[in-house]
Amino acid sequence: MPWMELMSKLSENGRLGEVLRIGATAKRRRDYLHWNDLRHRSPPEGLNVEEWWLSTKLLRNGSMRATPLMDKKGYPFKFNVPDCVVEQLHQIDKGGGTLITPEPVTNPQTRDRYLMRSLIAEAITSSQLEGAVTTREVAKEMLSTGRKPRDRSERMILNNFLTMQRIRQLRDFSLTPDLILEIHRMVGAEALDKPDAAGRLRRDDELIDVSDHEGNILHVPPIARELPNRLEAMCKFANAETPDFFIHPVVRSVILHFWLAYDHPFVDGNGRTARALFYWSMLRNGFWLFEFISISQIILKAPVKYGTAFLHTETDDNDLTYFLMHQTDVIRKAVQELHEYIERKTEEVEEARTLIDGIEWANHRQQELLAHAMKHPRQRYTVAEHKGRHGIVYQTARTDLLALADCGFLEKRLVGKEFVFRAPPDLVQRIKKN
Asked: Residue 422 is part of which domain span?
């Protein structure tokens, strides 16, 4: 909606002052609507929808803060922090590792399980957002057992898994263009249409755009020759060198995510790289619980909303607030999902604890396997999967399973050159007799 033209028109007919007065005194909405949504709502009494939009835009512009991210015409992207975002940030601060810490992820005996779950979930769902078609079960089996990927989709997932592990190591490093290239190289290795495109910026002759499923062009990124300078500016922002005012770390991380996606500096793999940079920024700013959280799981449930958040920002005068609202909601839901998952698993373990605690010789990994086996009769377990699930060496995993088999809690048989273990249907009774 061309609100500047409407403002000129109202100025000419003398109605602008009345529109601003009514708009300023109208009851404030908690939501932050784009024109495409607001035009379908009932405006305050005394205004039509277009006048309501004008008063809304002018009020928003008065509190906007500009970022160093410029669009292709040299205009800055700006943002507000409306009440709905403030509330989300508060919830993220509480549940994202700064105020409330779930005991299972601080306990060295159990944290690796939750870490592996998060790494696997993010690797799979981030790849699925970019077109990977491998099922979750097959992908989890590949990552848990360490087998080599069999196709491009599996390679994308493995790359994401390795990249997320690397991001954990990079949290203490400042962001540089070379580091961004390293992350992209890991994301794109053997998984891009152009094999030589991994770890380098796109060239002038590589014209790309972002289109929908019907071929409609939604975004054309800045030209390639501008990318080196834009990456330098992005890194200064990521390292909190710019701008000259405080930005909440979550807001900064979300804008960094948007920035790389907007610039689209690579031929392919931009979305995966953007989300990896988001994780780097969150971990660097002390939100350490994000080692255990997957935002892509939430985005994948409603990918259209993800795309719409980008589109609304670009089509409303570079207003980043739309993307900020979407992503803080995604983050909050991802944090909540982790806490709920931990709560469910804790309840399951506690239900079985009275039985398992009687097995004094079993370590925490064996106890966890037994708790799982009691709820999943005839479940198949292998040394490789046990090793991958807990991040332990092969011999330790083998010793765990053989000990459980020797006392009758698991049944073993040789399949090829590998032992396969299964929980007997009367496992609970066997534990009770122990």
From this structure: 357-433
Higher confidence at residue 33 or residue 213? 33
The β-bridge partners of 219 are 210
Q: Which is more confidently placed, 397 or 135?
A: 397
Contacts of 432 (CB under 8 A, 6+ apart): 355
Q: Is 358 helix (H, G, I), strand (E, B) or coil?
A: coil
Is 351 inside any structural domain?
A: no
- State the average pLDDT over residues 181-201: 95
Q: Strand, coil or helix: what is 67?
A: strand
| Domain harbouring 139, CATH code | 1.10.3290.10
Q: Using CA atoms, how far apart are residues 434 and 430, in angstroms rounded to an integer?
A: 6
Within 10 angstroms of residue 410's Cβ, the number of other Cβ atoms is 26
CA–CA separation, 207 and 47 (whole Å): 45
Model-level pTM greater than 0.90? no
Listed residues 46, 63, 80: the one ending a domain: 63
At residue 218's C-alpha, the angle toward residues 331 and 122, to 5°, is 30
What integer pLDDT is reported at residue 377 of this predicted model?
66
169 burial via Cβ count (<10 Å: 0-12, 13-18, 19+): exposed
Residues 52 and 90 in one domain: no
CA distances from 434 to 57, 375, 404 (A): 71, 19, 12
Closest CA to 213 of 304, 134, 302: 304
Q: How far apart are CA 265 and CA 122, in angstroms?
A: 22
Judged against a pLDDT cut of 80, whether residue 28 lies above it is answered with no
- Residue 415: its pLDDT value, please? 87
Q: Is residue 343 part of a domain?
A: no
Bridge partners of 211, per DSSP, are 217
Domain identity same for 295 and 426: no
Examine the domain organization and report whether 184 and 221 are in the same domain.
yes
Amino acid present at 318: N
User: What's the number of domains the chain is made of?
Assistant: 3
Q: Which two tokens stand for residue 54?
A: 């004008």
What pLDDT score was predicted for residue 333?
93
| pLDDT confidence tier of residue 249, bands split at 50, 70 and 90 | very high
